[in-house]
Each structure stands twice: as C-alpha cells, then as structure tokens.
Amino acid sequence: MPIDNPASRIRLTGRTLTFTGDPRDDADAYRYTEKGSILIEDGKIVWAGQAGEEPAALMAGVEHHEYGNDLILPGFVDGHLHYPQIGVIASFGTQLLDWLETYTFPEEARFADQKYAAETAKLFLDLLLSNGTTTAAVFCTVHPQSADAFFEECSARNLRMIAGKILMDRNAPDTVTDTAQSGYEDTKALIEKWHGTGRNLYAVTPRFAPTSTPEQLQVCGSLMSEFPSVYLQSHLSENTDEVRWVSDLFPEARSYQDVYARYGMLGPRSLFGHAIHMDEADLAQAAETGTKFVHCPTSNLFIGSGLFRMKETWDANVDVLLGSDVGGGTSLSPFATMKAAYEIAQFSGYSLTPEQAFWLSTTGGAEALSLGERIGRLEKGYEADLVVLDSRSTDIIRQRTDRAENLREELFALMILADERAVRATYAAGCRVHGT
Ligand SMILES: [Zn+2]
C-alpha cells in the first residue's frame, strides 16, 4: 500500500537525470540537473527543471520532499519476470527443462489458492518497489485467480504494470495446465476485466511453444487480433535442449521463432524473453515485425542457458529490453541485471556503456513497451513514476563514487556495485510507495 497520501501537489528536489534520446546514437542524450526540481500534481509531472525556477502558480500548497545529493530518475522497467517464482529463486542445480519440472511447476500449482497468490503478490510488489522498479512485464500462473490477485494488488498501489495468466495445455502436470478453449475464455475475461482498468495492462502469456498445442498457439494469435492493444509475452530460444525439443514438436517451422510467426504472435507489442540461440533470418524477421527481445542476463548465467548477443541484436535493429527473469534470475535489482548484461556483453568484445544500461532500464524500456509517452522521462505530462538513488549507500560505493570525475563514472559504479540499499525512495503516480 502507498506509505503516504501526499498533498495533491508535491515537489521533489535533488539531482535529476532523464534521457532525451537514444544513447547508442548520442552518449550525451540526457538532461542532468545538479539542483533539480520536479513538481507533481495528481500523479503526473507538471513541471521539471532547475530548483528555484518553478512557476509561482504551481508552488501554492506544495509539499516538499528534499533529496539533496540523491539522484532522481524515472522508475526502473523490468521487461520479464514471474511473480509466482519469487519463492523458488535460488534453487540449486538444474538447467531449464529440469528446473521447470523440479521447482517451478510444483510452486506454480500452489497459485490455485487465491489467498496464497494474494500474499505472494504483496510480497513480490514490496520487493520490486524496494528495488526501484515501477513497471514490469509479469507472468502469473495458469490460474486466472493468480492474475486477479496480482492486478488487485497493483491497483491498490496504483502501479503501471503489465501481466497475464499463463496459457499451457500440454507437457506439464495437470495442476498447471488449461486447455485451448479455457485458456481463450479465461484470457478474454481477464483482458476485459483488467486491460486499461486503472493503470493495469494485459499480456497474452503462453509460457513457451513446447507447453502449448498448435490449437492453443492459434488462440494466442486470435486474441492478439481481437485485442490489438494488449501485449503478448513468452519465452524464445533460451536453452539448446529446448530449441531441439521445439524443432521436434514443430517440424514444419524453419526455426523456434518461426513457430510464433506462423501463429501470428510476432509484432511490436510482443515481448520474448531470452532469444539467445538465434540466426540472422530470425533477427531480420524480429526487426521487420517490430518484435522485442528481453535480455535476462542473471537468469541466463544461473541456468547456464547461453550468452545473449546484445551488439548483434542491436545491429540487426531489434529492440531489446532488460529483464530480471526471477525466479530463474537471481535478483530483482536492476543494478544486478545491468551488471550481468555488461559482463555478458564483454564476452563478445562489446562494452555496454552506463548510459545505455540506465537508458535500457528506464526510458528505453518504456519506449520498447510502447509506453514512451507515458512513463520513462522526467518531463511535463509524464506519469510520476520515479526512483531516488543514494550514490553513497555502502562504504565500497561511497569510496568509488567520491572519486568519480563525472556522471558516467558514478552511474557505472552504481550498476556494478549497488543493490536495493541504494534505493532511497520509489514513487508511483506521485505517491511514495517505498522508502523515505
Ligand atoms: Zn521467464
């Protein structure tokens, strides 16, 4: 729940940083204000600029939150994760297909109980917000009540979240499967109930090709045509055994991604986690359809899935988001995700810059979700989803940022060394939902 109900108009002051363009084209495409000020009214930013220059008319009755030397950014975006897997994060010793069977499916079966789903959704959102993440694309379980529980909790906190009930009608235990027909009906009912209700957004969510029959994949494509403003989220080419399995199950398809293409599931609102083992034709097809890939680096390392090729994917003009992929991923912290993305890019001789990493985690992530005009910038008219970072939260970070000669060095120290202790406060729609 929101920690406080602020006055209808609030003012935050501190150092402010917002991207104004794509740092891959221009490393200086950001606006940094040493003594910045943001005025928020009814959940939206009404003015942002230099402290002391605020229009007097907007200052009447304002409640002031002073953040001094802390850094205020748009809230973080997480492009792929599973709220029901928070309980199986850090589970030992398996690769993807075993991991699903051993840890994930038994845990997900528990979400038939809406009370358990509601408790987990609360815990998950507390943790997400304490890491500064204000928007995420979230998988629920196969049970419609798991999505209801999640959206109810998001609504109580007025969060801009994307989520959906999983569709899965084969190759999994009965406790976590639906049918093509029930998957369609339940998803349609959830879309009508939640998509665009408050700040909630819906994603049609087939887990991945091996756990859906062709009939169910057809249903997913139909839902996308029936409801063109909803998202689609799934998994793609994560692990080599999985890729082989898909080619056995769908021998007619040219590649794993081609399975989704055949059922009308690619497009600018389609988000595919991982996309590690891709060929040039796949990348060209993703670029042509505007399909987004979500790079989940801590998960790929933890499950031993492979190394995503960021530079090649970008060079092919495919949009990329960053995702934590908890519970396969090992941390909800965007810093941990940025750090692992940097480390994986290093293997292919590419150094992900701190500007690129923070852009991916804020403005770039929002834009890839087609939400670039609502969230992701500290500008007038934007929804006031913000994170306040303390660049001196631990001794090791403090001694490093004290030596930093510029903003780039400070951001890099944060992405390599910081964790949730650096998140001093998180705001959603102008309401403080974490910290002080
Ligand atoms: Zn996942």
What does it look like?
By secondary structure, the chain is of the alpha/beta class. The protein has two domains: 9-75 and 376-435, Urease, subunit C, domain 1 (Roll); 76-332, Metal-dependent hydrolases (TIM Barrel). Helix content is 37%, strand content 23%. The protein has 15 helices and 16 strands. The strands form two sheets. Strands 5, 6, 7, 8, 9, 10, 11, 12 and 13 form a nine-stranded parallel sheet that branches. Helix 3 (144-157) links the parallel strand 6 (133-139) and strand 7. The longest helix is centred in the first third of the chain and has 17 residues, at 114-130. The radius of gyration is 21 Å and the shape is globular. The model has no long low-confidence stretch (mean pLDDT 96). Zinc ion is lined by residues 80, 82, 235, 273, 325, 328.
Q: Give average pLDDT, whole number.
A: 96
Instruction: Say which CATH homologous superfamily of the largest domain is assigned.
Output: Metal-dependent hydrolases
- CATH fold title of the largest domain: TIM Barrel
The CATH architecture term of the largest domain is: Alpha-Beta Barrel
Could you give a short account of the major beta sheet?
9 strands, parallel
Cofactors, ions and other ligands in the entry: zinc ion
Structure classification: alpha/beta
Determine Rg (CA atoms, Å).
Answer: 21 Å
- Counting structural domains, the number is 2
Total strands: 16
Overall shape: it is globular
Give the low-confidence spans: none
Instruction: Determine the fraction of residues in helical runs and give it as a percent range.
Output: 25-40%
Q: Alpha-carbon distance between the termini?
A: 14 Å
Query: How much of the polypeptide forms β-strand, as a percent range?
Result: 15-25%
CATH level-1 class of the largest domain: Alpha Beta
Total of helices: 15
